[in-house]
Amino acid sequence: MPQYLLLPAPAANRVYAEAAASMVRAELTVLSRAALATRVGSIESATVAGVEYLAFEADELTDRDLGFLGLTSAFYALFEADGDLLRPVAVPSPDRYPSDLLTILKYQGKTNEQFTRLVLNVTAASTARPEGVLDRTLRVLDPVCGRGTTLSQAVMYGLDAVGIDVDTKDFELYSSFFTTWLKDHRFKHAAATTPVRREKSVIAKKYEAVFAAEKADYLAGAKQTLTCYAADTLRAAELVRPGTVDVLVGDLPYGVQHGSRGPRGLVRSPLDLLDGALAGWASTLRKGGAMGLAWNVRVAPRDRVRALLESAGLTVLDGPGYDDLRHRVDRAITRDVVVARKD
Question: Least crowded by CB within 10 Å, which of 24, 163, 171, 265?
Answer without folding.
Answer: 265
